[in-house]
Each structure stands twice: as C-alpha cells, then as structure tokens.
Amino acid sequence: xxxxxxxxxxxxxxxxxxxxxxxxxxxxxxxxxxxxxxxxxxxxxxxxxxxxxxxxxxxxxxxxxxxxxxxxxxxxxxxxxxxxxxxxxxxxxxxxxxxxxxxxxxxxxxxxxxxxxxxxxxxxxxxxxxxxxxxxxxxxxx
Length: 142
Fold this sequence. Notes:
Layout (H helix, E strand, L loop, with lengths): L6 E2 L2 H4 L4 E3 L4 E2 L23 E8 L10 E7 L16 E6 L2 E6 L5 E7 L1 E3 L21
Parallel strand pairs: 5-8
Antiparallel strand pairs: 1-7, 2-4, 2-6, 3-4, 4-5, 6-9, 7-8
C-alpha cells in the first residue's frame, strides 16, 4: 500500500466548524526516555522535532460532549504561543497548518486519530465552513 505513516489533511477537514483552545501548550513526555524525577520531552519519530500538546474544543455542535475536547500535538523546536484571546469570547479560536492524522485503535478497541500539526495561529477567516467536512467520529488523543 502506498499510504504509510501520517495522513495529510486540511484544517477544514478536521475542524469544519472551527476549534478553540481550552488548555495550555505543554511539552509531551517521552515515557521511554524519562526516569523517576527526570523529564525528557518527546520528539517526533519522523522529523525529530520536539512535541508539544494543546487541548482544543471542537466547534461542531453535533459532536458528543465526551468527544468535544481533543489533544492536538504540535511539532516545533520551541514552545508554540497561542493566539491572543478575542474580546467577548469565552475561549480563544485557533487554526492549525500542516495537519496530519494517524489512525490507531484505542484502549476501548475503537478507531481513533492522533492529530499532529506544524503551526498554530489565530483564525484567518471569521466564518467556519460546515460543508468542508462531515465525518467527525473518533478524534482521540494519541
């Protein structure tokens, strides 16, 4: 099969209704390299870049509450800075570039996806595109 590794996707395919930051950008722990009392940050297996993580809330009104918040992993040599909050909004809207998804089977035996991105920034447009993507099942943290 020609398709191997992460699958490139667009932001509007994954978050057609937009998404919002609901957590801090944090380093991802390398569980194999870290020891008791010594934190080692994970590096991406393909690029060797440091891996950071931020929790976002999917803006899709049809997504079940338990699936609303997903972790997005950001590959970056330095800690990414989230966009500035927007006045009057309870959550900060965000967009991502350079997205890829990696399907896997989670602990419950269900298909899920790990979402990795190359860049995080403020939205470039104001209206989400609900027609850009309909499938929203199984976005889980890797």
